[in-house]
Write a structure and sequence with these properties.
heterodimer; A: mainly alpha; Multidrug-efflux Transporter Regulator, Chain: A, Domain 2; three-stranded antiparallel β-sheet; globular; B: Helix Hairpins; 3 domains; about 20% strand
Chain lengths: ~100, ~300
Amino acid sequence: MSPGHTTPRTRRPVSIDGTREELVELAVIARQAGVRVTLVRRYVEFGLFEPASGTSQRPLFAPSTASRLAKAERLRRDLGLNYAGAVLACELLDRIRELEDRTH
Amino acid sequence: MAVEFKDYYEVLGVPRDASQDDIRRAYRKLAREYHPDLNQESDAEERFKELGEAYEVLSDAEKRERYDRLGAQWRAQERAPGGGDFEDFFDRQGYGGDVRFEFGDGDFSDFFGRLFGDGAGMRTSGPLRGLDREALLELSLEDAIAGGRRRLTLDGGRSLDVNFPAGVREGQLIRLAGRGAPGRDGGPPGDLYLRVRLKPHSTFRRQGDDLDVDLSVAPWEAALGATVPVPTLTGTARVKVPAGSSSGRRLRLRGRGLPKQGGGHGDLHAIVKITVPKHPSDQERELLEKLAEVSDFDPRKSRA
């Protein structure tokens, strides 16, 4: 994995009404994941995801971010990982999924 | 409903005299194996929950002692004549009655509630969104083009009516917000993703966004040219078969295929398939014989 390649391949889902989903703010990610804003910031620090656009004052994230954060956090809490370990696990899971998709 | 006895030692695969270290090691190993974010099997979530419950009890000296004591009594009673189930046992011991054990999804079993009461829940670490789930949405090509409504049966037997938009593609993910697993400690639920799979069609063969369909034509139509009807996903179109078309010639009907990512449609290819009358009439046979006589065409010789 090349340096800086920390953004997961985002699957662009279409919601049930068929519209593309909008980028979301930090506070919305926190609400969607059920966690505090500080935890979202911490995972940004650890490189779980990066802002898709926006300014450093008001970064915007892909709509799949909350679900990715919750996955990392479940793994961290349930398996006794630290933040770096949880991020690593998520990245490896992404790569497995990519490989599986490629072989189908 | 009868409360079933749970053998927590068996769940963790450790002997009854296992040390705290053994129990922790066994739990960590199995937790990595069955964590529903790591294991896609449909029973992983249930299994992981069971592991958490077993570990909650056996890793806590007080709970473990209580479980060991009551479990031994229960087994002794089970062997006795007329022994009932665990619930009878509790009622007789006077543990029943005021203990409420209504657990929501994501919590511990009735057995656990019966043994330790409602208050003794999981050690919590704050609200967190639940797992996303994925289900297959199998559609015919016609349905995928037209959109519509479908009843899905999810893992665990729940069923759900979903409306899907017109023009969905193979492999596309459709998100149903909040239809995944329930959140923890009051966190929001995960989402449900429907992965579209297009079923094979008896008439049309799918090649990505394009479709192939066989087009039967009579030898004279193929030789002389004709305009003939061809089935499409939305009805019937007419296609011009140019004079001198042999079997296998692909006639393109632009935009009559499946929806493409980012808009537009693939193409429909009508593939010429020369079909002869099985039982020609006398007159047909006469004309064909005459044709055979006068023609010097040799289809097995490549002609420049």
